[in-house]
Write a structure and sequence with these properties.
By secondary structure, the chain is of the alpha+beta class. Helices cover about 30% and strands about 25% of the residues. The protein has 2 domains: about 90 residues, Phosphorylase Kinase, domain 1, CATH 3.30.200; about 140 residues, D-amino Acid Aminotransferase, Chain A, domain 1 (2-Layer Sandwich). Strands 8, 9, 12, 13, 14 and 15 form a 6-stranded antiparallel sheet that branches. Strands 1-2-3-7-6 form a 5-stranded antiparallel sheet.
């Protein structure tokens, strides 16, 4: 894993498609090339300080989970091996190595399919205010980080710029139809449960995560990243103690640091000190090692 941070990737002569908070996407006709940079976003703001090697972790973890969950739903991954990429990308092999994926092009469904098995983050904040998350009523008396009685589906909007917002299942049904909503809910919960079972056997609690889906014709497939430290809360099982926030192998560590600064969560974000960068990198590497055994 590299020591120098990669914050942007310019592939001259290759058709540029889109730049996300972390990823750069290039258009290869019926396929896309997704490159994971080392940028990190918190509270939907890209921070000025990258985490060296983070993009490689996201790529390797996603590749692992795409293969692990392919029995539940097809996904967009074609290959993460640069040797199998189209010839037009050959001269960029060094910069693409370990941090890029060739994927199928889909029509993305504009929805973040959030699944929660534990009470944390924005879900905990909503519960304290209303006793519910996304309109789902929960039992009284739950503590922060408690395991929920049932896994719940709590979708949010998908914002390229600005903040994602939690929404109700009924709202989603009005946007994309009940049949598609039911399918996304069923698949999201199945993906989460399979991954959670595997992770717990290896010492990690997946408290919550988000999935994204796209369509090829009428077929729905899993896209974007999957079950990474950017898109999930990973807690060390041997330190789990409900009633408070948990130590983690994900970017919650950075969020917690930012919360101490009095930052208003409006761009530009604050610089991260070297110590926070080093600890964050270590946490991502720990997640990679535990989950993929690599």
């Amino acid at each position: 894993m590299g020591t120098n941070a990669v914050t942007s990737i310019d592939l001259e002569g290759v058709k540029f498609f889109k730049r996300g908070k972390v990823r750069e996407i290039y258009d290869l006709d019926d396929k896309l090339l997704i490159i994971s940079s080392d940028r990190i976003s918190c509270f939907d703001v890209i921070l000025p300080t990258p985490i060296p090697g983070k993009g490689e972790v996201l790529t390797k973890v996603s590749e692992f989970w795409f293969n692990f969950t392919s029995d539940i739903i097809p996904n967009h991954l074609i290959t993460a091996s640069v040797e199998e990429f189209p010839q037009v990308l050959a001269k960029y092999k060094d910069v693409l190595q370990g941090r890029s994926m060739l994927v199928k092009k889909t029509e993305p469904i504009p929805l973040e399919c959030v699944v929660r098995g534990y009470l944390s983050g924005s879900g905990w904040k909503d519960y304290k205010k209303t006793g519910s998350i996304c309109g789902i009523k929960l039992p009284e008396g739950l503590r922060e980080s408690d395991k929920l009685p049932e896994v719940i589906f709590t979708p949010s909007t998908k914002a390229d710029i600005g903040h994602d917002e939690n929404i109700s299942q009924e709202y989603v049904e009005k946007q994309i139809g009940k049949e598609t909503t039911d399918k996304l809910k069923e698949v999201s919960i199945a993906l989460y449960k399979k991954a959670r079972g595997y992770a717990e056997k290896n010492g990690i609690i997946i408290a919550d995560t988000k999935f994204e889906f796209g369509k090829i014709g009428d077929e729905i497939i899993l896209i974007d990243e999957v079950l990474t430290p950017d898109s999930s809360r990973f807690w060390p099982l041997d330190q789990y103690a409900p009633g408070k926030g948990q130590p983690s192998f994900d970017k919650q560590f950075v969020r917690d640091y930012l919360e101490t600064l009095g930052w208003d969560k409006i761009p530009p974000g604050p610089e991260l000190p070297d110590e926070i960068v080093a600890k964050t990198k270590d946490k991502y590497l720990q997640a990679l090692k535990i989950l993929t055994k690599s």
